[in-house]
Amino acid sequence: MVKFFRKIRQNLLMENKMGKYFKYAIGEIILVVIGILIALQINNWNESRKEKKQELKQLKALKLEFEKNSITFDSIMLHHTQNDQATIKLMNAKNENYTLETLDSLYFKTIYNYNFDPSRGIYNSLINSGQIELISNETLKYKIAEIQDIVVDYIDDENQAMEFGIKELIPFTINQMPYNPLRIYKNRNPKEKAIHYKLFQEMINNRIFIEHIATMSLYRTGIFEEGERVKKEYQEIIDLINQEIARIEG
Q1: Residue 194 has pLDDT above 80, yes or no
Q2: What φ, ψ does residue 100 adopt, rounded to 5°?
Q3: Minimal CA–CA distance to 230: which of 132, 160, 148?
Q4: Residues 6+ apart with CB under 8 A from 79
Q5: What domain count does the chain have?
Q6: What pLDDT, in 10s, does the model give residues 210-226?
Q7: Per-residue model confidence (pLDDT) at position 33
Q8: Residue 218: how many other CB atoms lie within 10 Å
Q9: What's the pLDDT tens digit per position in 16-26?
Q10: What is the maximum alpha-carbon separation in the chain?
Q11: Is the separation of the CB atoms in 169 and 213 below 8 Å?
C-alpha cells in the first residue's frame, strides 16, 4: 500500500503535475491523520473497556464484603438489644421474684459486650492501591472512603461500654459478692445457692450497683445511635454498588 502511494507521487512529479501532487499529498496526510485518530479512538475504547471490567470486578468484591459486614452487624446489634433488655430488667429486679439462675443470666448479659469486627480486606486493598479511582460514581466513592470513620466511631462506643464494665461494674460486683456471679456454679449446693441469692438480693437493692448498670445502659444508647448510622450507610453503599453493577453490565 505504501509503495502504491509512493508510485502515484512519483508519477505526478515526473509528469510535472505539481498542483495535483500537492492536493494528493494533502489528501494523503488527511488520511494518515484520520487513521491515527481512529487508532487512538480504538485504543481509548479498549482501555475504557478494561477499566470498566476492572471496576465491575472491584464493585462485586466490595458488594460481597459489605453484605457480609451488614449481616454481621445486624447480629451484633441484636445481641446489644437483648443485653440492654436484660440490663433494664436487672435494674428493676428488686420488684420481681426472680430466681438465682435468672439473676445470674441477667447479670451476665449486662456485663457482656459484643464487638463489631468488620472484614476490611477488599476495602483496604482498594484504598491502599488507589484503585478506588476506578469507581466512576463520585457519591459511591465518597461513601466508601467515609465509612471507615463512621465504623470507628461506632466501635469506640462499644469499647467504652466494655471498658466501663471491666473497670467499674465487675470490680464492684466482686467486692459485694464473695460468691462471684462471674463464675458459673454448675454444682452449687443448696447452702451456697442460698448465700449467693441473699447477696445478690442485697446487691440489686444497692444504689451504687443500680447506678452502674444504668450507666451501662446509657453507654448502649450511644451504641444504638451510632449503630443506626452505620446500618444506614451500609445499606446506601450496597444500593449504590448494585446500581453501578447494573449500569455497567447493562
Answers
A1: yes
A2: -60, -40
A3: 148
A4: 114
A5: 1
A6: 999 999 999 999 999 99
A7: 62
A8: 12
A9: 545 554 554 56
A10: 126
A11: yes
pTM over 0.85: no
233 CB neighbour count, 10 Å cutoff: 18
Rounded (10°) angle between helices 18-91 and 207-249: 160
The pair phi, psi for residue 242, each rounded to 5°, is -60, -40
Which of 121, 86, 136 is closest to 106 using CA atoms? 86
pLDDT tens track for 35-44: 666 656 665 5
Task: List the domain range (segments joined by +) for residue 71.
Answer: 2-249
Q: Which grid cell is 1?
A: 500500500
Supply the mean pLDDT for the chain.
83
CB 91 within 8 A of CB 217: yes
Instruction: Cell numbers for 183, please give them.
Output: 463464675
> Looking at residue 50, what is its pLDDT?
72
